[in-house]
Structures are given as structure tokens and as C-alpha cells.
Amino acid sequence: MQFIVNQLTEYCQQVLANYPASRYMVGYSGGRDSHVLLDMLCQLRQTGQLTTPIIAIHINHRLQKQSDEWAKHCQAICHAYHIPLIIEIVKEKPQTGESIEAFARQQRYALIAKHLTNGEFFLSAHHQRDQAETFLLQLMRGAGLDGLRAMPLDKPFGAGQYLRPLLNVGYDDIVQYAENKQLPFIVDDSNDDRRFNRNFIRHQVLPVLKKRFPNAEQTIARSAAWLAEIPAVNAPENLCLATLKTYPLAKQKQQIRAFVKHKTGLSLSQKQTHYILNHHLTADADKQPQLKVGDYIIRRFGDEMIITAALPEASFARLSDKNYLTDIVIVAGQTYHLDKIATLNWQTGQGGLMASKKQTYQLKSLSRSQRFHPHTRRHSTTVKKILHETGIAPWLRPLYFGLYLDKTLVAIPGVGVAQSHYTKNSRAMMPTWIIKQKFVRL
């Protein structure tokens, strides 16, 4: 049995040697798999084979009544190993109908990623059986190539990298390691709940396959590894829809998926891909179809497919409120930050409003039907038409608030100053909106 301990520890060391880092952060749930990985790293550190600093992180999902006790267990184990431990608590709850597995994973990764810096690696204890389960889950979802590649050995993650050093290690070997070292670990009863798809595959599907094919986990994982070696489609930096329409259907799908993967790191499902084909590619020129994928929105604007970050829900609600900002008073030259999304800024040298502490303006929502005569036009027209003709994308228009004197619109930052209030003077200040690039386009 000691042989398996030495063998796995040596294998882990060989994997880590190919991924030097400034620090390794170990995902430690307190369960058997993550305890085995943590123990291996401590053994390597003790023998001098690993000099990279090690830290552990535990995510308390608060989904079980024992969650706080598990966090205390992890703290005690890490204290015994002389390993610093970060404990993060998930404060949100899954919404009604939301997948608990998906919710927990999303929250977990977000909390972990914020602790990673450039040059650091997050390590998880995923192993060969996990890989086989993931492949079968993706197969049952009708996933494409990206999904059937299952879990990669390494990938970018936050500001650092994500590494699974035990991905090619069999589950039985990990069990033997833990038994040999007599590791105390947490047993989470929810792992036996077969309402969850992964648990169903683990307890109902894989055992049947292994009766007929004893090496099923290994061979399934090998197939995923083969698929991972297939070169990815070169992702376009920009996606012109007119050009896309000239391609055969299969290439259209490849280009769309590659573009989205390149920009967001997310893989489109067949349903999402078909939605884009049936809406973004076929919509009339004056339509702007959109599809939300994760924290991003895939849009059509003009003859391009554009991806932007989605506005936070709280910000969207505030910006949609007509009374938002009505009590904000601005003087020329004063900056104003709009919900960490946009900033009111001022430029000199092209004319605009003269700065005066006595003259203040109100920052308010624009009425699209209101007429406005900017200094750049001969005649007045509606705000709606001005925003359109200026080329401001429809999803950005709610960010364009106006500067008012009482009920008179004197300027639309980023568009122009009312002709009647415009001063052609090098000291005059022109208001503009600086919008975070991720909300404009990725």
C-alpha cells in the first residue's frame, strides 16, 4: 500500500514540475479527494521536492446544516499541516428552479478567482472518474466538441491558471492513498443524492458500465483526452455577418462558436447556436436581436455580431428609472461616476460650456421625443434621432443622460452642447461619457 502513496506523490510532483508557479492555491472541501491532494503537496514540501508556497481555500456554500462544522474541520487540518487557509462564505441562495449544482459551481469559482494573481495556480483534486462523469454528462446534454473534451488539465482562470494535477489518476488509487495514510475526511451525504445528474451517473451508470467494461473510467477519460487534442477552429477577432452568410452551414456554426468562445471563454449549446443563426443572421437591418449567455450578451449591430458584458441587474433597474439622478447637480468640469459603468468627463480645446461655480446643471434622463439643437447641426431634431444618427449603439443609449437647466436640455454628453449655450472658446468644456469598454464590446 505504501507503494501507491509513493507512486501518486511522485506523479503529482512530475505534473507540478511542468507548471511552475509563484504560489499554489489548493481547493480544499475537506472531502477525501481534496485531502489527498493537500497531503501530497505537504509531503512534497516536507521532502524538499516542492518549494512553491502553498495555501488552501475552502468555500462554505451554506447548503447543508453541517457546513460551518466542515469549515472548522478544514481549519483544524490546515493548522496541523501549517498551511494558511482562506474560508469564503457564499452569501447568496439559488433561485427557485435554478440548478443547485450550477449555482454552487458558479459561486465557488467566482470566490476562488478573486484570490488569484498573475503567476499563481489554483489546484483541484479532480481525477479520472470525475473526467468520465463529466464526459457522460456532456454526452447526455448533446454537447459538441468543446463539451466532449470534458475537463482540461490546465486552463486560464481569473488572473492566474487552473490545474488539475490528479486528472489522470484513478479513483481507486486515491481511495488506497487515503486509507494508507488514514486521512480524516468529511463525508458529504449529498454526494449520494441521485436526484443530481452527476451522482446518478456515478452510482447508477458507471457501475453498470464497469461490470461489462472494467476499464470504463480510464477509456472514457482517454477519449476525452483524444478530443482535446483536436485543434480548435481559429477564432475571428470580428464577425461580419455578410461574410458569415457566404459560408456553408457547418462553417457558420464553427465560426460563431469559436468567436463566442474566444471572447467569453464560454461554449454555446446547439440551441443557442441555432438561435443566433435564426435571429442574428436573418434579422432585418433595423433589428437588434440579442442572446444572454452567462454574464455576456451576444448582439447584432449593423452588419456585425458584437459581444458585451451584461449590465448588472441592480444597475439596469436604476438606469431604467426615469427619476434616477434627478437630484444630481453638476458644474462644468466636474466628473461623475455612473454606477461603475460610465464616467462623465470633460474636454477642453473644442468649445462647449464655460466653467462657473455659480452655474450648475442637473443630470437627468433624456426624453427621446424632446427636441434638441446641438452645436454640430444646423437644425434641431428629436433626441431619439440624434442618438441614432450619432451611431450610439441601442444598448448604450440608456447611459446617455442629459445636462439640464431647469427643463432646458443644454447638453448631451458625448453628443454635443445646445447651440444656444455653446461657447467657442479654448477654455470652454465639452462634456462626454467614458463607458467601460466591456459594455461597449469585447
Give a verbal description of the structure.
With 442 residues, this protein is α+β, with helices and mostly antiparallel strands. The protein has three domains: 2-228, HUPs (Rossmann fold, 3-Layer(aba) Sandwich); 239-309, no CATH class; 320-440, no CATH class. The protein is built from 15 helices and 20 strands. It has helices at 2-17, 32-46, 67-81, 100-113, 128-140, 145-148, 171-181, 197-212, 216-228, 241-244, 249-264, 270-279, 313-320, 383-389, 437-440; strands at residues 23-27, 54-60, 85-89, 120-123, 154-157, 160-163, 239-240, 290-293, 296-301, 304-309, 328-330, 336-338, 342-353, 361-364, 371-372, 381-382, 402-405, 408-412, 416-417, 429-435. The strands form five sheets. The protein has a six-stranded mixed β-sheet with strand order 3-2-1-4-6-5, with helices on both faces. Strand 8 (290-293) and strand 9 (296-301) form a beta hairpin. Helix 5 packs across helix 8, helix 5 packs across helix 9 (216-228) and helix 11 (249-264) packs across helix 12 (270-279). The radius of gyration is 28 Å and the shape is elongated. The model has no long low-confidence stretch (mean pLDDT 87).
SSE blueprint:
Blueprint: H1 2-17, E1 23-27, H2 32-46, E2 54-60, H3 67-81, E3 85-89, H4 100-113, E4 120-123, H5 128-140, H6 145-148, E5 154-157, E6 160-163, H7 171-181, H8 197-212, H9 216-228, E7 239-240, H10 241-244, H11 249-264, H12 270-279, E8 290-293, E9 296-301, E10 304-309, H13 313-320, E11 328-330, E12 336-338, E13 342-353, E14 361-364, E15 371-372, E16 381-382, H14 383-389, E17 402-405, E18 408-412, E19 416-417, E20 429-435, H15 437-440
Parallel strand pairs: 1-2, 1-4, 2-3, 4-6
Antiparallel strand pairs: 5-6, 7-10, 8-9, 9-10, 11-14, 12-13, 13-20, 14-17, 15-16, 17-18, 18-19
Helix pairs in contact: 1-2, 1-7, 2-7, 5-8, 5-9, 11-12
